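User: Structure with adenosine-5'-diphosphate, tokens only please.
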Amino acid sequence: MGIIRPLDDHLANQIAAGEVVERPASVLKELIENAVDAGASRIDVSAEEGGLNLLRVADDGTGIQPDDLLLAFQRHATSKIATGKDLFQIATLGFRGEALPSIAAVAKVKCVSATDDSGLAQMIEIEGGTLISNRETNAPKGTEMVVKDIFFNTPARLKYMKTIQTELGHLSDVIYRQALARPDIAFTFSHNGNLLLRTPGNGDLRQVVAAIYGTSSAKAMIEVKEENPDYSIYGLTALPIETRANRNAVTVLINGRFVRSQAVVQPLMQAYHTLLPLHRYPLAVINLKMHPTLVDVNVHPAKLEVRFSKESELRAFVETAIKNTVSSEAYIPSGASVR
Ligand code: ADP
Ligand code: MG
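Assistant:
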């Protein structure tokens, strides 16, 4: 008699949650990604106590059909990819179908969703992987996710959470990146009832940068814009006199997805070359677009790392684009009239 058996779903979800849900900010990242994938034009986020007590994400996207709502919380269930071929050309932020079941395995989740403005909506509640209720209710079009008491059933994980302030910092990072990635979406973020961020959602990246980093930094940044048949780059980057000590100053977005990528940051630094003081980074937001086949996002469970199929070409493209931008403006003192 053998001793190997498949894990039951609940246990499998808890294990997956260990990878996907590190802290409240990881939950927030997944929920915002889902809202973006649903085509939202407005995403409202609120949190209490660094997200440990409560996270709420409401969007005005497509919504989830009543019959699909339970399925959305099932492991490896997704509306975003269907075939192996799809995996090599992912156009959405999500695709693993792992986030919702993982979150529901380690928290108390309520989801209200409606696919139209008839007023009819469906609501589901799941706590620690156990279905509490799934019934009709009333709500406008879109989806509201409320996640309470993260790690209530995994005390070992809860013990590792840092102070409210640290968790809030991570939540803010997540919102900032998503807001920078999508200036066409209006974001709000409030914490313990205080509004911390509001972006206009009018497509203007500079206004998002102003909301996050302040108006004077935003005003001083210069526009990067270039394309070739494979890549297009759009962004804002600081003059070498406006630098920061933190490498997080550079936000890299690939097809709207925030990633950590030396393949982009290094050529950017190279382009500034000797203009940058040692160990200083320019404040920059770099948006790269490319055909999904040129980038593999299925590398990392949190999808923070990607692989490029033509990395050296990409590096050269980024370096040239930034060089052209910086060298055209670098020696003009900020505030001076350029034209
Ligand atoms: P993935 O995003 O990888 O598909 P998730 O577990 O995050 O997996 O979500 C499962 C499914 O639930 C998604 O494929 C999508 O169909 C649906 N869904 C989740 N959140 C939303 C939302 N905010 N709006 C519309 N549909 C959603
Ligand atoms: Mg998702």
